[in-house]
Design goal:
The protein is mainly alpha-helical and 299 residues long. The protein has one domain. The chain is built from 8 helices and 3 strands. Strands 1-2-3 form a 3-stranded antiparallel beta sheet, with no helix packed on it. Strand 2 and strand 3 form a beta hairpin. Helix 7 runs antiparallel to helix 8. 34% of the residues are buried. The N terminus and C terminus are likely disordered.
């Protein structure tokens, strides 16, 4: 059990903290000068339309674009990212080394495993998707665009997480803890037995951490963060206690899920997204370009 506790501590290394900035209070808008020309935004083009139930192809396009960006992001990672990449790699390596001992020390307890498996299913998969659906519906009924956007972004992040999870599972082809006395081998039977019911990374951990980062980024109060990150941490630990994953599986799944949520938040959120936004506008002199700088960007 000591090895399991040690690996649980390593889990906290794999998740990067969020730095939030507090936007300043907006100043009162100044009155336009008499006879000043007006600038009207053009109707959104198909590329500019937000993801919505009435624009599902836009959602598909967003997920595909983000998935491509997520997969290629290591090629464009700045040098300062080594500050978290190195600890994450070290934590994963140490966790893999102690995985078998941790699972064997945990022992077999059918009732405990069943309880934690159900807990992680409900909190890691069913609840996040249900929350996204309820949030979208409530936002539509109450005309709360911010809540609606949060629901859409969280759903997009979970879709991206699910796609990447499947790709990594089949690429790594690691045995589940239940197999071969929890040896946790990679490609145990070689290409002939591929895929071998792969275990790494943890889908539940990746999904819930992607959801949690989006929600905590949109609603960045202490209480919200405590709830969503607390649930995400509980799900990650539960996957090990249920003997469904090794500690390193949840380290990788939690970290990637968190990063995916941050990527979607940064690239898709109107309030917490890119610093500079360019859009087409219609002026009295014809079609033009509007440049907006988001000084209240959250992340």
């Amino acid at each position: 059990m000591g090895k399991l506790v040690f690996c649980a501590v390593l889990l906290s290394w794999g998740v990067v903290g969020v730095a939030q900035s507090v936007p300043s209070a907006p100043s009162a808008p100044s009155a336009p000068a008499p006879n000043a020309p007006t600038v009207q935004s053009l109707p959104p083009t198909p590329e500019d339309r937000p993801c919505d139930l009435h624009a599902l192809m836009v959602c598909v396009k967003h997920v595909a674009e983000d998935e491509k960006g997520i997969v290629l992001s290591p090629l464009h990672a700045p040098t300062e990212d080594l500050l978290w990449i190195v600890p994450f790699g070290a934590a994963t390596g140490v966790a893999i080394h102690y995985d078998t001992e941790a699972i064997q020390d945990l022992g077999v307890h059918t009732t405990r495993e069943d309880h934690f498996n159900k807990l992680s299913d409900y909190a890691g998969l069913y609840a996040p998707f249900a929350a996204a659906g309820v949030g979208y519906g409530a936002g539509s009924v109450r005309h709360d665009d911010y809540l609606k956007e949060t629901a859409v972004l969280s759903a997009e992040a979970m879709a991206d997480a699910g796609i990447l999870d499947e790709g990594l599972k089949y690429a790594l082809d690691r045995e589940y803890p239940m197999a071969d006395n929890a040896k946790g081998g990679f490609w145990p039977g070689g290409p002939k037995s591929w895929p071998n019911n792969p275990s790494m990374p943890s889908e539940h951990a990746m999904n819930v951490w992607a959801f949690a980062h989006v929600v905590a980024g949109q609603y960045d109060g202490i209480a919200t963060k405590a709830v969503v990150y607390g649930v995400a941490s509980t799900v990650s630990v539960s996957r090990v206690l249920a003997r469904q994953h090794f500690p390193s599986d949840v380290v990788v799944g939690s970290t990637f899920g968190y990063l995916i949520g941050g990527y979607v938040l940064h690239h898709r959120s109107r309030e917490h997204g890119n610093l500079v936004d360019v859009s087409a506008v219609q002026t009295p002199m014809g079609r033009g370009i509007e440049l907006r700088v988001n000084l209240s960007r959250g992340e």
